[in-house]
Design goal:
single chain, 69% helix
């Protein structure tokens, strides 16, 4: 008997890794990074008239997102992902963990 495919049948929702695959994460990362540099370009060529340190706060917020993306793709998260893939490959070859 196969697992129910209709979410209304009481089946558990698919894991997040199936919903948001690596391709979608990559696209979202590109959009955020391009938006960050686009905002810097707009702020440089067309300086907005914002009160106080509003521009600095916006740039800091966007820079935080960009740094999170960089650390995810090239930091410890990528190493952890590669280690998990190696372990899952090894466990599949050996028939499981012992």
């Amino acid at each position: 008997m196969s697992a129910p495919t209709n979410p209304l049948d009481g089946a558990a929702p698919p894991p997040a890794s199936n919903v948001f695959d690596d391709q979608m994460r990559g696209r979202l990362a590109v959009i955020i990074v391009v938006g960050f540099f686009g905002f810097i370009g707009l702020a440089f060529f067309f300086p907005p008239q914002l009160p106080g340190d509003t521009l600095g706060v916006i740039l800091g917020y966007l820079a935080g997102w960009v740094s999170a993306i960089v650390f995810f793709y090239w930091g410890s998260s990528s190493g952890s992902k590669m280690k998990s893939m190696q372990l899952s490959g090894r466990s599949a070859q050996q028939g499981g963990f012992k």
